[in-house]
Amino acid sequence: MSETPVKQQSTAAYFGQAVASFAVALVATSIGIFQLEADTWVRAFLGIAVLYLVTSSFTLAKVIRDKQEAGQIVSRVDQARLEKLLAEHDPLAKL
């Protein structure tokens, strides 16, 4: 009667590509900041800004994921309540 949704998981190749892409971007940005012809404090500021951006991105991704998962849990609870009501309902009981 009830259909449980299939949990979609990403493949190992997709995960590897995401990790590699993140690593390449972080290394390239770090090299660019290190090679920048500017004062040390400017390079340090840019480095801190990049680290702040990375941590903020991880936090944002986690918040979005948590909100989506919470919505799925509420949806499953509502679906279970509906299935219980339908299972307990007997249309011929009043006749």
UniProtKB/TrEMBL annotation:
Pfam families for the chain = YiaAB
Q: Signal peptide: which range, if any?
A: none
Q: Which residues form the YiaAB two helix domain?
A: 14-66
- Keywords for this protein: Membrane, Transmembrane, Transmembrane helix
Q: Name one GO cellular component term.
A: plasma membrane
Q: Does the keyword Transmembrane apply?
A: yes
Q: Which domain of life is it from?
A: Bacteria
For this protein, the parts annotated as crossing the membrane are: 12-34, 40-61
Which residues lie in coiled coils? none
What GO biological process terms are annotated to this protein in UniProt? Answer: DNA damage response
What's the protein name? YiaAB two helix domain-containing protein
User: Which species does this protein come from?
Assistant: Streptomyces acidicola
